[in-house]
Amino acid sequence: MKKIALLCLCISFLANAYTQTDLPELNLLKSELEAHMRFLASDELQGRRTGEAGIEIAARYIASQWQALGVQAANDGSYMQAVDLQEVNPMEEATFTWNKTDFTQGNNLMMLTGDDLNVDTKAVFANHGWVDKAAGINDYDGLDVEGKIVVTLSGKADDNSPMATFTSIRAKRDFAKEHGAIAVIEVFKMNPSFWKRAVGYFSKSRLEIATPEGGAAYGWVLPSDSGIAKDLKAGKKKKVSLKTGKAQITKIPADNIVGIIEGSDPALKEEYVLLSAHYDHVGTGKKGGGAFTAQDSIFNGARDNAIGTVALLAASKVFSQTPPKRSVILLACTAEEVGLLGSRYYADNPLVPLKQTIFNLNCDGGGYNDTGAVAVIGLDRVGAKQEILDGAAAFDLKVIGDPAPEQGLFDRSDNVSFASKGIPAPNFAPGMSDFNEEIMKYYHQVADNPDTIDYDYLHKFCQAYVHTARLIANKDKLPFWATGDKYEAAGKALYNKE
Ligand SMILES: [Zn+2]
User: Fold this and answer.
1) Domain 19-84+253-494's class?
2) Distance, CA 435 to ligand 1 centroid (Å)?
3) Where are the domains of the chain?
4) CA 428 to ligand 1 centroid distance, Å
């Protein structure tokens, strides 16, 4: 024991000696970053599609790099955090009958999941079907839903955006099941053209975080085709029936990879900066979903998101040698391309308490068309603007804020899984000034391969990412959301702030 204690003392002495230097002299070679890129985005990894062999090789590669660097494994001695996913093929046929009106699957009804049912029962209206005791919300209060079908409004009271609708499905099924209901039918409060797109998307097989067997069936109805909304408001009780087939569910293995580097300052090392990047992509051929040719059917995902993964590996190397004051969590996320599932799983099952996680710097991008810049989505929102500007400027890069506000990019990558929990979480991306042809040439295309990468830029970009992360991890004042930001309230709740 003593020997170990002495060794630890020596190591921490050395680590402290290293952190004396504040200059961005990062020990990162262009050649080593190129080597990571050429491995992760190689044809042999087959586009790193979640559930396939290629992504498991990528996972092993990342974990092996961390092991060689001496990064701590975050999950009880393992770098792997199993993310249990399932592939769901929705039922082809289903009918929900309300007041003699039939709603049929794929037309004005979209049952997403559940066992086969053939029931005549009562419908009970339960507002948004939401329960949040801390916020004083219980839409089931005083309702008897045992053996019945719960009809709800989609989304939540304060947010009926598509994202809120899609991300609350699981919780709503759980609330319904806890109260004894057999199914949840949501009145889909979005415009009809969006309904068509949603039905198109959800009629195909999809991946989701695995649910316990026997949960409540779940689906949407299109309100414009019925008097449902009117009847509900009037408090009318209706007899309903629901007949559905069974959704086909297959378990899919997947892993987040999580490592920890302890901070150098004893007073700050219980605080963590979470560095994240997704390492999955969309696979090959038809499964990739984009255009491919007989000569090339592999979506290598060099930009999306081997670049981010390489930046994460760069951070792991630099910080394992010279840790910043605060500790760092390194998180390589699985299953981003199929709905941000890996990051959401980590946010719901964190390996370090979320309230100790003071910031997330996610690294993900759709490509670049400005090699004089980085793009940081959320630049003005997360309380670390100066550190981001300085981190980029140290490598002669300027910072583009949000290049395409109309695209809602902030809420389209893994950072939103953490932002919605209250953690300030921008997305640090390669320089993109707008969505032009240069971006679309590579974005989710087979051309996004390692031969088309500007390695001088990759070198600069990764150094800027690492240096920015260090400035934030060493920052005196804790970063926090801008006043009035939509995630500010979640942040106050997470960190017990007034
Ligand atoms: Zn991506």
Assistant:
1) alpha beta
2) 15
3) 19-84+253-494, 87-251
4) 11
